[in-house]
Design brief:
- The complex is a heterodimer of chains A (529) and B (545).
- Chain A has 529 residues and is mainly alpha-helical.
- Chain A has one domain.
- Chain A has 20 helices and 2 strands.
- In chain A, strand 1 and strand 2 form a beta hairpin.
- In chain A, helix 3 packs parallel to helix 5.
- The longest helix of chain A is centred in the C-terminal third of the chain and has 35 residues.
- The radius of gyration of chain A is 22 Å and the shape is globular.
- With 545 residues, chain B is mostly helical.
- Chain B folds into 2 domains: 206 residues, no CATH class; 262 residues, no CATH class.
- Helix content of chain B is 70%, strand content 3%.
- Chain B has a two-stranded antiparallel ribbon with strand order 1-2.
- In chain B, helix 2 runs antiparallel to helix 5, helix 8 runs antiparallel to helix 10 and helix 13 runs parallel beside helix 19.
- Chain B is globular and about 70 Å long.
- Classes of the chains: A mainly alpha (529), B mainly alpha (545).
- At the A-B interface, helix 17, helix 18 and helix 20 of A face strand 1, helix 6, helix 7 and helix 8 of B.
């Protein structure tokens, strides 16, 4: 075996920076001293059971001031973003003797992850401050999970994929349970952990079968083994391996029928974490899913029956779009609605994956996938940012997370109302927003790949989607305020900046999609051999 | 100045948008300021569009064309331009803009800021839809129209406004998404990878697809436009949206937005898929005629003024569809003229009904009576508009309907043209019945109920909104020729392409490579109504078929 090559570290620079940041945040805890009366006492209107301040109210001096950690985390996320973007045009590097790779695709995914983390840090800052729940592990865990996501996008060996997957997942499980009080965070984390471990085991089983069928865990070696006519009798083993590997990641991307955990987890986790999770985990999991399927099993379609894995994914996509959109319609809680919408969007992304099965449309579909991941990430981080602000305000006023408590938002906070409406319209895929351009790139690739029925089905389900997204706009703008002055109070600045950033990205990608599409074009070269 | 001249169309399109941004930056709660800025900006937009009308020379090419890069990596460009048909509707849009703002000066008192922004953004979106020559650009503007209109209906409408707003959005959206897929299909088959295009002019020049494919793509486009028109039986969103919308929303909806559907047919659905359009023209005509009769009958049963006018829109746009599917130069010219006329007449009707509603807060016919005694100016202007809506000679409505019916009677392309025209013509009579009936119930008779409301006559501000519309009604009624001249080229090209594909014109929008032989129809003058000795109303006879 080759020895460790320090130059390889340059290839995983974004992940490395994030991990260093996480360690820095953790070690800095050692040197913390109790703060001396920096925090103002909160004014006592605490009605909600779930969102009470967590720090010890009796003795505020005991809790040290940890606000610097948000700055550290944001700085390292920004550094990771910069690293990913500055490497974007570099030639592809094979790292650690083939266990990982640094190509345009992985770098762009890493950039999406780092940007999502950066924006989520800003949202978390004011969210945690207003809950007085800034504890040491939050930003460290977020940085660790982001590092796992970046590695996941780069990994080209099933073992490395598994390790990165666990780095990402364990940190996310813990973040889901971060608000310890109340039943819902615990339930969310527990459900996510149990089902997530199950999914990891399924993935591992699939990896073992793939090893059995081809004799390697390297994606490139698997592909090579498949090209040199696999032994007879292997095709059953191979089908099982593909199905199990895909299932493992379909769980992570929240595809039907592996979606059961999504509403509870999205609902129970702190809103900024949910936004980060929806953007980051989806991006990383889709990146590794297409890497395994396209680069590993791209040539194995013949061995996998007449239509190969493309058809399997197409059916999953259809089911996911249908179930996600239909189940979102009756939701009254915005967070749960966004959870089901996230399932539906996994379906649209799976359309892009299915379009990657045929080599003619592969480049277009890869661009579509990347564009969609970035557009969805910006939109969903922004939407959960608004939810985070509103949720806190509602809790202060003793109101629940029902849609009806969003009424009159346009009167109180016109900026938040406009931003939320923009995000909803982007999620629905109406121009001139990022969501529309994302749908354009994906469905165009689907038509290109000859998946017209799937595309027709997809756009029709997006009409159902429009209905529940519009309902938020209805409550925000059209339904008169149920309780005057219901939504009020709270710290806004950093979350507001993050939301404004998301608004700008969503509009920019919607009005000037060309510049980002050019990035995806060069990134998609990784898959067009 | 040169830059502005070269980009005049773009400047006009985005001027309202700039105004909206300006209003967004003004402080909240300064309603008067917001309305003032909105009015001035819409007036400026109208002023900016006047040079477009003045500088327009009828030709087979698009005027004021501008093409620049938008997103080359995604394959679409910013490509705008106007032909005669689009220009007329474009002028109609900018013409109605200031009227709409002025008309809602008193009615809208809360959340003025969002209201003004929505109106201006809507104007930009409508103008963009008309001027776009790239399919993605067109679709972007087309969908962008929905959002401000949705807000207008949902935020300032009457009781069932939310239901109406959501219904409006969903109906339109469901048609549009299928059209979007059809657009992608066109793109995907427009050349080898790397050379594909969303450009309308280039797609048109590529010749026609095979008929089987055309059928499906035409269906997708036609569905989107048919919902917007709306063609019976897809019209059910319209009465709700019209009735619940505030007056300004109804004016824009009736005045311009419905025309986007018929405009879509004449610009996109039919020329892009001519064989499918020719094959399905009888169905379009049939649905148009059903719309005429059904809409007229529904009008008679209404007790709500706005709902009545909404159903009359279904009938009037049925005429437009009949004219478009008759595929003769006269009928298509009439249909285009009818689009403009309907915009002016129905816009004026909604405007005046809005003023009545502002005074009485009811739209029920039974709550009125004898308004003419109390408010003679409203009654007089309403009468002119009513007559124009009926199609009395000397008003604009006459010219359009007359040309449509004449053109349909003489159509040889449309199977069963004569019976369809006969049944359609009953719509003229029915139209007179329901409109005059409404006029009688509201304005004539005893004034007992009306006096109870205390109706004031038109104020100066209101006169300023009504007068331009009255002038337009009479002006087009007597001098339709400039309009007919402006639309002659695109209408001829349309008829050529759809009805006589074997005789493509060399200079038409269609490519020279397809069929260079010029046809006799090329030299035929536009139909002239009042100079019959120079050009007969019927198409030049003796053309080989």
């Amino acid at each position: 075996m080759t020895v460790f090559n320090p130059n390889d570290l340059y290839g995983i620079l974004p992940a490395l920076l994030l991990a260093v940041g996480a360690l820095l945040v953790l070690t800095s805890e050692v040197f913390l001293k109790p703060a001396s009366g920096l925090r103002p006492q909160l004014s006592g209107v605490e009605a909600s059971s779930d969102l009470k301040p967590i720090s010890v109210a009796a003795d505020p001096e005991a809790a040290p001031d940890r606000r610097y950690q948000a700055w550290v985390a944001a700085a390292f996320a920004a550094a990771g973003l910069w690293a990913a973007l500055s490497q974007l045009a570099d030639p592809t590097l094979s790292l650690f003797s083939g266990a990982a790779v640094s190509d345009g695709f992985a770098r762009l995914v890493a950039a999406v992850v780092c940007a999502a983390l950066l924006l989520s840090c800003a949202v978390s800052y004011s969210y945690l401050e207003s809950l007085r729940a800034t504890r040491g592990e939050f930003y460290a865990l977020a940085l660790f999970s982001a590092a796992g996501m970046c590695l996941l996008a780069q990994a080209t060996d099933l073992i490395v994929i598994f390790v990165s997957l666990e780095v990402m997942s364990l940190a996310i499980y813990a973040l889901c349970a971060y608000l310890r009080r109340g039943k819902r965070p615990a339930e969310a984390a527990f459900k996510y952990f149990i089902l997530g471990s199950f999914a990891s085991a399924i993935f591992l089983y699939g990896a073992a079968l793939a090893f059995g069928a081809t004799g390697s865990t390297r994606i490139a070696d698997i592909a090579a083994a498949l090209r040199s006519s696999p032994a007879p009798g292997v095709s059953g083993l191979l089908s099982a391996a593909v199905a199990l590997l895909a299932s493992g990641f379909c769980f992570k991307v929240a595809a039907v029928p592996f979606h059961m955990w999504v509403p509870d987890v999205y609902d129970g986790a702190p809103a900024p974490v949910t936004g980060f999770m929806a953007a980051g985990v989806k991006a990383a999991a889709f990146a590794v899913l297409v890497r395994i399927l396209v680069l590993g099993f791209g040539d194995a379609n013949a061995a996998l029956g007449p239509h190969g894995w493309g058809e399997l994914i197409a059916w999953l996509a259809m089911l996911t779009m249908l179930v996600g959109n239909l189940l979102a319609i009756p939701q009254r809680s915005v967070k749960r609605m966004l959870a089901y919408s996230s399932i539906a969007h996994a379906g649209y992304l799976l359309v892009a994956v299915a379009s990657m099965a045929s080599s003619g449309s592969r480049a277009d579909a890869t661009e579509g996938l990347l564009f969609y991941l970035a557009a969805y990430g910006a939109t969903v981080v922004g939407a959960f940012g608004v939810v985070a602000v509103i949720e806190r305000k509602l809790a202060l006023s003793g109101l629940g997370d029902d849609l009806s408590s969003w009424s009159g938002l346009a009167e109180r906070h016109p900026g938040l109302a406009a931003a939320m409406s923009l995000f909803m319209i982007s999620l629905a895929g109406v121009p001139p927003t990022a969501g529309f351009m994302a749908k354009l790139t994906v469905f165009r690739a689907a038509i290109e790949a000859g998946l017209t029925p799937l595309a027709i089905f997809g756009v029709l389900t997006s009409v159902a989607g429009l209905y529940y997204y519009l309902r938020v706009v209805v409550y925000v703008y059209m339904v008169p305020e149920a309780k005057p002055d219901a939504i009020q109070g709270g710290r806004l600045l950093s979350a507001g900046l993050a939301i404004a950033g998301c608004v700008l990205i969503v509009l920019w990608m919607g009005v000037q999609p060309g510049s980002f599409a050019a990035l995806t074009q060069s990134a998609a070269a990784a898959f067009s051999r | 100045m040169n830059w502005i001249e070269a980009h005049l169309l773009t400047v006009a399109i985005f001027l309202p948008m700039a105004g909206a941004v300006l209003i967004a930056l003004l402080p909240r709660g300064e309603g008067g300021q917001h309305k003032g800025v909105a009015f001035i900006v819409s007036l400026l937009t109208f002023a900016a569009s006047l040079p477009l009308w003045a500088g327009f020379h009828p030709s087979s090419k698009f005027a004021f064309e501008q093409r620049s890069e938008w997103a080359p990596s995604l394959g679409f460009s910013y490509h705008v331009g106007l032909d005669g048909v689009a220009l007329l509707l474009f002028m109609l849009t900018t013409f109605l803009g200031p009227i709409v703002v002025l008309s809602s000066w008193k009615l809208i008192q809360d959340r003025v800021k969002i209201y003004c922004i929505a109106l201006l953004v809507l104007e930009t979106a409508m103008m963009g839809t008309l001027a776009a020559l790239d399919l993605v650009l067109f679709y972007t503007f087309w969908e962008a129209m929905l959002i401000p209109m949705y807000l207008l209906i949902g935020m300032w409408g009457s009781e069932r406004r939310i239901y109406a707003a959501v219904k409006f959005f969903l109906f339109t959206f469901i048609g549009s998404v299928l059209m979007l897929l059809a657009i992608f299909w066109l793109w995907s088959n427009s050349g080898a990878a790397g050379h594909r295009t969303f450009d309308y002019v280039e797609l048109l020049a590529q010749g026609t697809l095979n008929p089987q494919t055309q059928k499906w793509l035409f269906a997708a486009f036609a569905l989107a436009f048919a919902i917007k028109v709306p063609i019976w039986p897809l019209h059910t969103w319209l009465p709700d949206a019209h009735t619940e919308a505030p007056a300004a929303g109804s004016i824009i909806l009736a005045g311009v937005m419905l025309k986007m559907g018929t405009f879509g047919f004449i610009r996109y659905a039919m020329p892009l898929f001519p064989q499918a359009a020719l094959a399905h023209a009888p169905y379009l005509a049939l649905f148009g005629v059903i719309g005429i009769v059904y809409g007229s009958l529904m009008c008679m049963a209404q007790t709500d003024m706005k709902r009545l006018v909404a159903y009359s829109s279904v009938a009037h746009l049925g005429f437009v569809m009949l004219g478009l599917s008759a595929l003769t130069a006269e009928a298509v010219s009439g249909a285009v003229l009818q689009m403009v006329n309907h915009g002016i007449s129905t816009g004026a009707l909604f405007l005046l009904i809005g003023y009545l509603y502002e005074r009485t807060h009811t739209r029920e016919l039974s709550a009125y009576g004898g308004v003419a005694r109390v408010a003679p100016a409203i009654a007089a202007t309403f009468l002119v508009v009513t007559l124009s809506s009926i199609g009395l000679p000397g008003t604009n409505g006459f010219v359009g309907e007359f040309l449509i019916l004449i053109g349909t009677f003489t159509s040889k392309e449309l199977n069963g043209a004569v019976p369809l025209a006969v049944v359609g013509a009953t719509g003229v009579i029915l139209g007179a019945v329901y409109m005059l009936w409404m006029y009688q119930r509201v304005f004539l008779g005893k004034d007992g109920k009306t006096v109870a409301h205390g109706i004031a006559d038109l104020s100066v501000r209101e006169w300023f909104t009504v007068a331009p519309l009255l002038v337009a009604i009479v002006w087009i009624g007597f001098f339709p020729q400039p309009l007919l001249t402006a639309i002659k080229e695109p209408v001829d090209a349309f008829v050529q392409r759809v009805a006589h594909p074997q005789r493509q014109r060399a200079d038409a929008i269609a490519p020279p490579s397809l069929q260079p032989a010029p046809s006799p129809a090329q030299d035929a003058p536009a139909p002239r109504l009042f100079m019959p000795q120079r050009a007969p109303l019927v198409r030049p006879s003796g053309e080989p078929r």
